[in-house]
Amino acid sequence: MIIGEQVLEELGSGPAHMARAWLPGGGCLLEIGCSSGYLTHHFLGRVESMVGLDINPAALASARGRHPHLRAVCSDVERLPFADGSFDAVVMLEVIEHTRSDTAAVAEIRRVLRVGGTLILSTPHAGIFAFLDPYNLRRALQQRFPRAYGAAGWLVRFESGQFTANVDQHRHYTLDELVALLGGDFVIRTVYRGGLLIFPLVAAAISVAGRLWNTPSVLRPLLRVLNWDFRCRFGRLSYNVMVLARKVR
After folding, report:
1. Quick one: which of 57, 199, 200, 234 has the fewest CB in 10 Å?
2. DSSP assignment letter at 40
3. Long-range contacts for 101-107 (Cβ within 8 Å, ≥24 apart)?
4. Domain extents in the chain
5. Per-residue pLDDT tens over the stretch 205-241
6. How many alpha carbons lie under 13 Å from residue 94 in its C-beta half-sphere?
7. Rounded Cα–Cα distance for residues 196 and 158 (Å)
8. Region for residue 72 given its phi and psi (left: phi exceeds 0; alpha: psi -120 to 50; beta: otherwise)
9. Pairing of strands 49-54, 71-74
10. pLDDT confidence of 155, banded at 50, 70, 90?
11. Which CATH superfamily is domain 5-247 in?
12. What is the dihedral of CA 199, 134, 14, 23, to 10 degrees?
């Protein structure tokens, strides 16, 4: 079970809506970090063929149930099991910050994406409220106050099925860091930065509420607020950053 997946499938996420608008039609798409496929429907109608990839086999089983015709592959983004130039586009939403090596992940994406192909990437931005990242705060509390954190565990009714065991902390990126990470083989065509204080606070509320209730009636209004805040541009202060890049060589 992925916390809030039913509502995410219904309403989508800010990055998923933007990725669909940016995605060129046709060709073969690789969705990296497709999880249980709750956002995959945004892209299926835009391309000729599609592969969903995730490191979590249980989530992929759910993705296959949602989308029986989707080719779902279990693999690490740092070791993609595809031939060079296999894809016309790659969508990777809120994944690069989870990787053990972001440089290895980008090298693999560069390898499997054809020249002229599109990369759409979203990740937490190193904005003014990056320190409020809910995952990082939860991990810090868990490490600093293990007894209190463990004692609070009896309240939890629903465990998130997302795979997070490979990292202790989300990375947050500036735009310059993303440009450097992608290197000279990519040219960034479009940049979006949105969300501010409301975004991490509501994301934290969704994480807590999902573990206590995980019902659409509770999570739906929170996700609506989260998506609204994502649509508000705050430039360098923003909590989120998203880029559309072309592979030029």
Report:
1. 57
2. T
3. 102/171, 102/181, 103/181, 104/78, 105/77, 105/78, 106/181, 106/182, 106/183
4. 5-247
5. 999 999 999 999 999 999 999 999 999 999 999 999 9
6. 14
7. 28
8. beta
9. parallel
10. confident
11. Vaccinia Virus protein VP39 (3.40.50.150)
12. 140
